[in-house]
Amino acid sequence: MTGQVRTVDGRVAGRRGQATRQKLLDCLGEMLSSSPYRDVKVIDVARKAGTSPATFYQYFPDVEGAVLEIAEEMAKEGAGLTELVAGRSWVGKAGWQAAEELVDGFLDFWRRNDAILRVVDLGAAEGDKRFYKIRMKILNAVTNSLTDSVKELQAKRKVDQDVNPAAVAGSLVAMLAAVASHQKGFQSWGVKQAELKPNLALLVHLGITGKKPTR
Amino acid sequence: MTGQVRTVDGRVAGRRGQATRQKLLDCLGEMLSSSPYRDVKVIDVARKAGTSPATFYQYFPDVEGAVLEIAEEMAKEGAGLTELVAGRSWVGKAGWQAAEELVDGFLDFWRRNDAILRVVDLGAAEGDKRFYKIRMKILNAVTNSLTDSVKELQAKRKVDQDVNPAAVAGSLVAMLAAVASHQKGFQSWGVKQAELKPNLALLVHLGITGKKPTR
DNA sequence: CGGTAAGCTGACGGCATGACAGGACAAGTA
DNA sequence: TACTTGTCCTGTCATGCCGTCAGCTTACCG
């Protein structure tokens, strides 16, 4: 199903080849977090990995191709974000806890994958379907779960009927993603990390349930 | 005060020079909306403007420099976004209207300056102070106004004291910006443009006042 | 009409890209 | 051990963009 790892010219990669390939990916990942995406050059990645540009081109069609590879990897891990929402109760104290844990988990994931998520975001915004798909894969998991939560509350008449669950869930997730990728920005207008989280959780809880949380 | 427009090598630009310069900026702007930022080359911009690469380098140190110029221009226009919030009442029907108009104005501005805002966002996220500053210039106006609104409501005991006005305002603005730049994304999970706006307005209202709007 | 500064470009060294052919290496076979 | 096979890596090359400079053309002014 997964298929073996293959080089650009169709050979199957052996143990040594896969190691080289992985090393190139790792080095690319590091470069992305230390210098602007626009300035990441194949030759630098290759040098950093102690190999030559030609080797890079054996495993990846171009820089973008390699970035997609890393992103795909991350997306798999990101699928686990679903668990932050699935099967949670949004009533009473449990609701507040759910909101807090969602915010926590989300911010954490984003901070860990900071650099690559930035590039994925850009690619998606520019209309590249491949990046777009990956971004969806990560956000969809959470968004769909949240959408379901809102729908449930609507069914129980706890949320107004004219609320569009998908729109609200999507917007909240977008907010989390945006805040996560500009966390430094908040510090400069005097909001500290620790203060940010409860306020985000508040917004999430308000958005989902329409009510202030009981802590 | 403003200083004349100058070329890289220090000459003051005359009428003809300024026209060329502007044409280069315009063409760059077009290129940014039609192809990925990473692939925008000086030579293409120059060709599109019917001039040579050397001319480009007379007016701008590099592509980034020119992008900053465009962004600066946009930031000036963006300062007008303050009016969407300043001096608004957030009580009763007026509150709902304020939320709706804020969302409307914001989304509109973002759609108009789509391409350049993407690049600014990326630059800021990557830690470039110059892009960061521009992003702040645009968002600060709105965020500060919103922060003040929340503070006022807090003073009147209409909002809980443990809410951090700046954190809430900043998060809401980040949400608006994020949703605006991924508007297409929402369509794919079945949320239409027209549906999106009222739901965003709802979230904004909830966030600022802590209460459901009275429409 | 001549001087001066603005405006533009051809051309060039330098570097990244991406392709290829061939050498180095590990593992299996006789 | 010698030979074979297939994987893995690199030297090298044509191509194309970058960023700069000297020098030519154009516009303005006394």
Let me know the largest β-sheet of chain A: none
Number of helices of chain A: 10
What is CATH's topology name of the largest domain in chain A? Tetracycline Repressor, domain 2
Backbone CA Rg of chain A: 20 Å
In whole angstroms, the N-to-C terminal distance of chain A is: 47 Å
Biggest chain-to-chain interface with counts:
A-B, 54 and 54 residues
CATH architectural category of the largest domain in chain A? Orthogonal Bundle
Mean pLDDT of chain A: 89
What overall form of chain A do the CA principal axes indicate? elongated
Number of domains of chain A: 2
- Characterize the quaternary organization of these chains: homodimer
Strand content of chain A: under 5%
- Series of secondary-structure elements of chain A, N-terminal to C-terminal: HHHHHHHHHH
Count the strands of chain A? 0
Secondary-structure content class of chain A:
mainly alpha
CATH first level of the largest domain in chain A: Mainly Alpha
Helical percentage of chain A: 55-70%
Pfam families (chains A, B): TetR_C_38, TetR_N
Protein name (chains A, B): TetR family transcriptional regulator
Organism (chains A, B): Streptomyces orinoci (Streptoverticillium orinoci)
DNA-binding region (chains A, B): 41-60
